[in-house]
Amino acid sequence: DAYLSEIDLVIHYDTDISNILGVKSFFGCALKNTRNNVNNAIFKYNGSDNLIIKSDLTSGKVEKVNVTNLICIGSGTTSPETTSFSVRISAFDNDVEDVNISNIVTTGASYSVYLDASSANSGNMKRININGLTGSEMGRVVLMDGGSGTGNINKVNISNFNVDEIQFRPFEAKGNVSNISVNNFKASNILGALFLSSAFQITPDVIGMKLNSVELLEDNNPLSLGTVNLANSSDNNFISGNNLFNLGGVGIPKNG
Predict the structure, then answer these.
(1) Apex CA 210: angle with CA 208 and CA 212, to 5°?
(2) Residue pair 212/244 in contact by the 8 Å Cβ criterion
(3) Do 65 and 100 form a contact (C-beta atoms < 8 A)?
(4) Nearest to 154 by CA among 115, 185, 121
(5) Predicted pLDDT at 30
(6) C-alpha 255: how far from its chain's center?
(7) Region 19-36 average pLDDT
(8) Spatial separation of the C-alpha atoms in residues 248 and 255, rounded to whole Å
(9) Which of 12-16, 57-61, 84-88 has the lowest mean pLDDT?
(10) What is the pLDDT of residue 77?
(11) Is pLDDT of 9 > 70?
C-alpha cells in the first residue's frame, strides 16, 4: 500500500503494487521499464498526469505493464490554458510495448487517454489495450498522436468506453498511427460543444481504423449526432456493429 501527497512515485522494474493513493503532485504515478503491475489506484488533483507510462533513453524501453482498477480525478483543467491527463502513455525516445489497462474511472481532465509518440526522436508504441473506461466532465477522451518523426503507434485496442459531458473531441488519431480498433465506444458531448462535426477525427496519415458499435451524441440526444470524419484512405477501414453517428470523409469504407 502507498499514500503519496505532494511527492512523485516512479516505479521501475518488476514491481507489483496495490492500493495507491496519489494526491496533489506533478504526477500521481510514473511507470517505467518492464514487468510492472498496478492494481487499485486513486489519483487526485495531480498537476500534469495522474498516471504516466513512459519510456526514455535514461530508463529504457517499457513493456509488459498491467494496470487495473484506476480512479483518476483531475483538477477540472479543461481550459486551453492548462492541460491534465488521466492516463498518458509516452514513447518519448524509446519503445513502449504490451501495455494493458482496464477499469478506469475518470473525471475533470483535459484528456482521459493520451497516447504520444510525437517527439522528433520518439520510439515505437505497439500492442496497447485499454478496456473499460467510464467518465464525465472532460475536455477530450482519447488522443493518439504518432507525430511525423521516427516514432509510430501501432496495434491499439480501445473497448468499452462510456463517457459524458465532453467539451471537445471524444476521439482523435493523427500522425504515424496504424491498426486501431475501437469497440463499444459511447460518448456524449455537452450541448453546443465544439468539433461535433468532427467528433471522431481520423487524419490522412492514419492507416487502418476498425469501428464496432460506436455512439456519438450531443447532450445524450439520439437525434443530434457527432460525426466520424475519416480523412484517411478507405483501404483498411472497417465499420460493423450497432452504430449511431454521422459519417463523412474520403475514408468511408466500402461496407460503410
Answers:
(1) 170
(2) no
(3) yes
(4) 115
(5) 85
(6) 27
(7) 84
(8) 13
(9) 12-16
(10) 46
(11) no
Output the CA–CA distances (angstroms, integers) from residue 130 to 99, 201, 216, 221, in the order listed: 8, 19, 19, 27
Query: What pLDDT score does 11 carry?
Result: 57
Grid cell, residue 51, equals 498516471
Q: Return the residue matching grid coordinates 510495448.
A: 97
CB under 8 Å to 221, separation ≥6 — which residues? none
Alpha-carbon separation of residue 205 from 25, 45, 181, 252 (angstroms) = 36, 35, 16, 15
Contact 97, 63 (CB under 8 A): yes
Per-residue HEC secondary structure of the chain comes to CEEEECCCCEECCCEEEEEEEEECCCEEEEECCEEEEEEEEEEECCCCEEEEEEEECCCECEEEEEEEEEEEECCCCCCCCCCCEEEEEEECCCCEEEEEEEEEEEECCCEEEEEECCCCCCCEEEEEEEEEEEEEEECEEEEEECCCCCCEEEEEEEEEEEEEEECCCCEEEECCEEEEEEEEEEEEECCCCCCHHHCEEECCCCEEEEEEEEEEEECCEEEEECEEEECCCCCCCEEECCCECEEECCCCCCCC
Mean pLDDT of 105-121: 92
Q: Give the pLDDT of residue 219.
A: 96
User: Could you report the per-residue pLDDT of 65-85, keeping only the tens digit for each?
Assistant: 999 999 999 764 444 445 689
Q: Using the predicted structure, report yes or no on whether residue 1 has a pLDDT greater than 60.
A: no
Q: For residue 57, what pLDDT is reported?
A: 83
Here the cell at position 248 is 463523412
